Amino acid sequence: MIDIHTHFLPFVDDGSDSLKDSINLIKEEKLLGVSDVFLTPHYRKEMFEESKEKIIFEFNNFKNEIEKEKIDINIYLGQELFIRSVSHFRSILEKRDEIIFDINNSNCILLEFSYTIPINVEEIVHLSKVNKLQPIIAHVERYEYLNIEKIFRLKMLGALIQINASSIVGADGRGAQKLVRKLLENNLVDFVSSDMHQGRINYLKKAYDYCIKNYDSEIVQNIFENDAREFLL
Ligand SMILES: [Fe+2]
User: What gap in Å lies between CA 6 and CA 9, rounded to an integer?
Assistant: First the structure.
């Protein structure tokens, strides 16, 4: 499996407070059967605004530690960009060189929004495409203002769709579970990820086991691994 959305990088995010916790989280991923992990610390104005240099420094440090501990897993760097509005997205595009911005130097960007205050996601997807970027909507099931029809439209506009493993198994409530299962049935999902933070439960394997029992195995391989390989590696 490949996990494209995690918060394991210590000291720059709300995912982990120490190198030791981060190492334990990575070891757990390995045990669950993950071969490649993308570290996507939050970029959110006034909350998580660490410099690009600091994030790269911590990433290299963490990578060295993984090698020292002889954990056989690959890590890559990205960010989860919190977008407040279309104009905010435009301003981020203008200063993209100052932040990590995309995932593993691909053209893919991982985007999240307010869960409750609606914003024009279609316009953000459109703007991304115009700028030759591939938007990935992080945990699409979390936004109160997006239903399956709206998610379908986003996909038709060229967005890729990420859902959280925790939602598949029902750990994020009945509403999220119902929606992600509908998305899975309609083949609207591109990635299933852990979105792990220290102190949470990693449901990736449990979600995989559920999917392999209930959906076409080729689709399951795509959403847990092949799509990540295609777009991000
Ligand atoms: Fe996240």
Answer: 8
The closest of 102, 114, 133, 135 to 45, measured between CA atoms, is 114
CA of 6 to the centre of ligand 1 (A): 6
Return the CATH number of 2-232, one of 3.20.20.140, 3.40.50.150, 3.40.1700.10, 3.30.450.20. 3.20.20.140
80 CA distance to ligand 1 middle (Å): 6
User: How far is the centre of ligand 1, averaged over its atoms, from the C-alpha of 231 (Å)?
Assistant: 19
Would you list the domain boundaries of the chain? 2-232
Question: Splitting the chain (233 residues) into consecutive groups of 10 residues, what average pLDDT does each group show?
Answer: 96 90 97 98 82 95 98 98 97 94 96 98 98 98 98 98 98 98 98 96 98 98 98 96
pLDDT at 46: 67
Q: What does the pLDDT read at residue 21?
A: 95
Rounded distance from Cα 195 to ligand 1 centre (Å): 5
Cα–Cα distance measured from residue 7 to residue 197, given in angstroms and rounded to the nearest whole number: 5
Phi and psi at 130, nearest 5°, equal: -60, -35
Q: Is the pTM of this model over 0.85?
A: yes
How far, in Å, is the centroid of ligand 1 from the Cα of 39?
A: 10
